[in-house]
């Protein structure tokens, strides 16, 4: 029984390590990942390439853990253990360089300062990886044909990871206490994507001279972008306002400002904070619409309006009198 449990413990590490490596690689694609972990130890211009390179290395190791067996598989497993062991050293150095920096293990989620839990997790993952060389199955074979001991070991391993992962607390805090839009970070790439998919952008696309903004600034929950434009032979500033978050259909507005006079010549998008009633889902049938119009028809009022129009032909307005004094206005 004991040998079976030991084999299950070793085999479970293959898919578990592969999943952790893939998660780490995916989260390193965010721009926040370039300011923590290994990136703290390199110059500013190299931080982004180093972060991307680390993510690509993690993807390669994860694929190897899932697919390779025999000697190539043992090489990948040993390399995985070496990478996690090296990460312990890197985390210690990064902690000395910047005590407030996160480990960067899972990109922007790893913002908490490097502590004993992060170092212990990296060390245990290194030991787990170094225990896998010599196994016959690949990680994919273990994941697709689990046994009860595999399930028990996996549950215990996940519980240990939960206890050693400060990122989970960060996710819980973000879910419960979501930052207000005034303080929320919003990438320029997402802003441009939301802008260029809007009807407001397509309406003014032929007015703009350049496809890139001349000026960008942010105020509260809005990011503003100014483009150079030409309208009816006059130079124009096309200023877009893109809301941080919110609904896509109502989050883009624009104004066209004449550069010479500074006057607003056109505006697009929502211009009121009130919710406007939407169009009916289905128009009434012709007979039903005619019946409704007939019910609203007032013959006496129509006759009075017709008589008033005859008494006061076009070009001559009836006298208007003040309601209190009765004098002509």
**How much of the polypeptide forms β-strand, as a percent range?**
5-15%
Order of the strands making up the biggest sheet? 1-2-3-4-5
| DSSP summary: helix tally | 11
Outline: elongated
- Main structural class: alpha+beta
Calculate Rg over CA atoms: 33 Å
Report low-confidence residues grouped into runs of 5 or more. Answer: none
Instruction: Calculate the mean pLDDT score and round it.
Output: 81
In quaternary terms, these chains amount to single chain
Q: For the report, how would you describe the main beta sheet?
A: 5 strands, antiparallel
Give the termini separation: 105 Å
SSE arrangement:
Blueprint: H1 2-27, H2 44-67, H3 70-97, H4 116-130, H5 139-144, H6 148-163, H7 166-176, H8 188-196, H9 199-204, E1 215-219, E2 222-231, E3 234-243, E4 252-258, E5 264-268, H10 286-296, H11 299-311
Antiparallel strand pairs: 1-2, 2-3, 3-4, 4-5
Helix pairs in contact: 1-2, 1-6, 2-3, 3-4
């Amino acid at each position: 029984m004991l040998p079976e449990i030991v084999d299950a413990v070793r085999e479970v590490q293959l898919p578990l390590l592969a999943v952790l490596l893939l998660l780490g690689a995916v989260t390193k694609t965010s721009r926040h990942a370039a300011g923590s972990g290994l990136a703290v130890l390199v110059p500013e211009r190299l931080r982004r390439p180093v972060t991307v390179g680390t993510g690509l290395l993690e993807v390669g190791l994860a694929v190897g853990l899932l697919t390779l067996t025999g000697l190539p598989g043992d090489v990948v497993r040993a390399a995985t253990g070496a990478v996690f062991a090296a990460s312990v050293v890197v985390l210690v150095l990064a902690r000395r360089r910047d005590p407030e920096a996160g480990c960067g293990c899972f990109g922007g989620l790893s913002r908490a300062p490097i502590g004993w839990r992060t170092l212990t997790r990296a060390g245990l993952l290194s030991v787990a990886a170094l225990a896998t060389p010599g196994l016959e199955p690949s990680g994919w074979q273990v994941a697709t044909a689990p046994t009860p001991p595999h399930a028990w070991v996996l549950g215990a391993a996940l519980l240990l990871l939960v206890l050693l992962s400060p990122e989970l607390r960060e996710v819980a805090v973000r879910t419960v206490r979501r930052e207000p839009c005034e303080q929320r970070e919003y990438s320029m790439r997402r802003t441009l994507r939301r802008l260029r998919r809007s009807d407001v952008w397509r309406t003014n696309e032929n007015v703009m001279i350049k496809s890139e903004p001349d000026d960008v600034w942010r105020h509260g929950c809005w990011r503003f972008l100014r483009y150079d434009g030409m309208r009816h032979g006059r130079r124009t500033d096309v200023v877009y306002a893109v809301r941080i978050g919110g609904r896509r259909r109502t989050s883009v507005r624009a104004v066209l400002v004449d550069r010479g006079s500074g006057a607003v010549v056109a505006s697009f998008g929502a211009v009121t904070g009130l919710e406007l009633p939407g169009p009916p889902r289905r128009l009434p049938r012709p007979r039903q619409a005619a019946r409704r119009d007939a019910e609203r028809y007032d013959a006496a009022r129509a006759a009075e309006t017709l008589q008033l129009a005859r008494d006061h032909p076009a070009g001559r307005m009836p006298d208007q009198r003040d309601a209190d004094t009765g004098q002509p206005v």
